[in-house]
Structure formats: structure tokens, C-alpha cells
Design a protein that fits this description.
- The chain is mostly helical and 347 residues long.
- Helices cover 61% and strands 10% of the residues.
- The strands form 2 sheets. It has a 3-stranded antiparallel sheet with strand order 2-1-6.
- A hairpin with a 2-residue loop joins strand 1 and strand 2.
- The longest helix is centred in the N-terminal third of the chain and has 54 residues.
- The chain is elongated and about 120 Å long.
Length: 347
């Protein structure tokens, strides 16, 4: 019995043991299983990649078509229909459409609509003008011509300013606003100023500063170009310094026909809120004592020498000697002849 058991065990020991026994986990079985799983997943991954690619292509195509359609629409609206709506104004603030070309420089369509919008806002809200009426359409058409002339002139003015190194700083703009506000011409607080600008022109304070900056630049350029006016004013000031009577000199050389015969006398009492006189002139006048006269003042439209004739509290009796600047077009026309203007609309 014992021998038979030993013999059976020897046979069992000699039988080979399979390394691939069912249920046993090895590196090979794990790798095979992983490949089987990945193989099934690839059937879904590759179509998904293809779908993403198509989605990107389709999206870009739609965006491209939309952009072309938008540019086509805005081009027709601006250049053919000459649409001046608020929407088109916002579009021109983003897309730099030109309205004209001066020499090698382009004039922005946005500058033109900026002028149109504050004009239409004022007449619509303050004058109750109906721009859909025949009269309103005629008036708008006339202003469009003036607005186009202005932005073209502004472009030439900027060109001259750049050549001559003439600039207007933000401080100069703020100082000018301060002078005007001290005379209560634009309200006494920031809030009042914002309200006045919005109600009358549809402007923000930044819009107002933008317009004022261009105005000051035009005045500086004109003052720089009109050397004859400066020569006449300086000669008159020298005569006053030499003892010449102010009234007599005003009758002889002043270029203000309404006051010249009266020795430069304004003919009315002036206070700080007087809106008939340049804010710069009023500011200078109130720095003078009775009997004193100022140096030559650049009032923007010309040069002035003012005199405090008599003062009672906050009112002054005054006289002035004026030297008018030439029309700036007399200087710009020569530049325009050399650097032609090409306008893209015909209002």
C-alpha cells in the first residue's frame, strides 16, 4: 500500500504545471486585457476627434461669413446710406472706418459722427427739432457739410501742430475748465457739469474734454501762424508802455468795430458770469486794479489788451483793444493745395 502511494506521488510530480492556468493574473494577461479595452475605445475616440475638427472648421466658417456680412452691412450703411445712428457711431469707435484722406493720413469716420451726434442731440432735446421733417432734414444736411469740413480741417490742424511741435496738455484742458467753472458757466460741481453736458450735448466729461482739447489746439495753431496779429498787438502794448492813452489807442488801432469808436469801452458792466466775453479775458480782467491794463491776451479768436476802468464790488467797467486773427482757412488752403483731400461721402 505504501509503495503504491509513493508511485502515485512520483507520477504527479513528473506532470508539467501550466503557467497559463485559468484565473491566474500575470503581466501578459494584464497587457492583453488593456489592449482589448483600448481597442474597443478607439472606435469611439477617432470619430470624436474628427467631429471636433469639423466643429472648429464650421465655427470659424460661420464667424468668417458673419464678419463679412457685418462689414458689408456697415460699409453700405456708412458710405451709401450715410447712417448716423448711435449704433453706427459705436461701430466706428471699434472699427476705424475712414471718412476722408488728407495727404497720406486718414480722417476717422468716428470724428465725423462725434460732431453730428452732439449737434442732433442739442437740437432734438433743447430746440425740439424734428429731424424727420423736411425742415429738419434740410438743416441736418447743411450741418453734415459743416461737420465734414470741420473734421477735415481738424486733420490738417493736427498735421500742422505736429510739424511745429504744438501740443495741448491735459493740464491745459483742466485749467481751462476750471476757469469756466469759476465763472459759473458750466455749473459749480462735477455733478452739475455732467448734467449740463448730458442734457445739452449728450456728452460725458471725457467727450467735453476731447472737444475742448481740439478747440485749444486749433487756437494755438492759428496763434502760431498769424504772426501779423502778434506784431500789431505787441506794437500797441509797447505804445501803452510808452505812455499812450488807452482810449486814444483803441480808437486808432482796435479791430472791434462795435467798441472802437468809444475808445474800446464795452458799454456794459462786466461780472464773472458774463457769457458775452471770453472766459480767458474775464479771468484776466478781474486780476487788474482800477486803472490797470493787461498784457496781450490770447482769447482764441484774436489778441486783446483789456483795461479795468472802474470797479464796484463784483462788477467792472472795462475797455479793450482787439486784434483779430485771420480765418484759419487762409493758412490751411495752401496746405490743402499741396496735400489734396479725398472725401469718401458726399453729404
Amino acid at each position: 500500500m505504501k509503495n503504491r502511494i509513493k508511485k502515485h506521488l512520483r507520477r504527479k510530480k513528473q506532470e508539467p504545471v501550466s503557467s497559463e492556468a485559468p484565473g491566474r493574473i500575470t503581466n501578459d494577461t494584464v497587457a492583453a486585457h488593456r489592449e482589448e479595452v483600448l481597442g474597443d475605445a478607439r472606435k469611439y475616440i477617432y470619430p470624436l476627434r474628427h467631429s471636433k475638427h469639423r466643429l472648429v472648421v464650421i465655427t470659424l466658417s460661420i464667424l468668417g461669413i458673419a464678419a463679412i456680412a457685418f462689414l458689408t452691412y456697415t460699409t453700405i450703411a456708412l458710405y451709401k446710406l450715410q447712417n448716423t445712428s448711435e449704433f453706427m457711431y459705436r461701430v466706428t469707435q471699434v472699427v476705424p472706418f475712414p471718412i476722408a484722406r488728407t495727404g497720406s493720413s486718414f480722417v476717422s469716420y468716428e470724428d465725423y459722427l462725434f460732431e453730428i451726434n452732439h449737434y442732433t442731440h442739442y437740437y432734438r432735446t433743447q430746440q425740439q427739432l424734428d429731424f424727420t421733417s423736411d425742415a429738419g432734414q434740410r438743416q441736418l444736411a447743411e450741418f453734415k457739410k459743416r461737420a465734414l469740413d470741420k473734421v477735415v480741417n481738424d486733420a490738417y490742424i493736427k498735421k500742422v501742430a505736429k510739424e511745429k511741435g504744438i501740443k495741448v496738455s491735459d493740464k491745459e484742458v483742466d485749467d481751462q475748465i476750471k476757469v469756466v467753472r469759476e465763472q459759473n458757466r458750466l455749473g459749480g460741481s462735477d455733478r452739475e457739469l455732467e448734467t449740463v453736458l448730458e442734457d445739452f450735448w449728450g456728452w460725458s466729461i471725457d467727450d467735453f474734454k476731447r472737444s475742448l482739447k481740439q478747440q485749444l489746439l486749433a487756437q494755438k495753431v492759428l496763434s502760431n501762424l498769424d504772426t501779423d496779429a502778434h506784431g500789431r498787438a505787441d506794437a500797441a502794448y509797447a505804445q501803452l508802455q510808452g505812455g499812450k492813452d488807452f482810449q486814444t489807442l483803441a480808437r486808432e488801432v482796435s479791430e472791434d468795430p462795435s467798441t472802437k469808436a468809444n475808445g474800446g469801452d464795452y458799454g456794459f458792466q462786466i461780472d464773472k458770469t458774463n457769457r458775452d466775453i471770453s472766459a480767458t479775458v474775464v479771468s484776466a480782467l478781474f486780476t487788474l486794479k482800477p486803472g490797470e491794463y493787461s498784457k496781450v491776451i490770447d482769447a482764441g479768436y484774436g489778441l486783446e489788451i483789456v483795461k479795468n476802468v472802474e470797479q464796484k464790488e463784483d462788477k467792472i467797467k472795462a475797455a479793450h483793444i482787439v486784434f483779430n486773427f485771420k480765418n484759419i482757412n487762409e493758412y490751411l488752403n495752401d496746405i490743402k493745395d499741396k496735400e489734396k483731400t479725398r472725401v469718401y461721402i458726399h453729404p
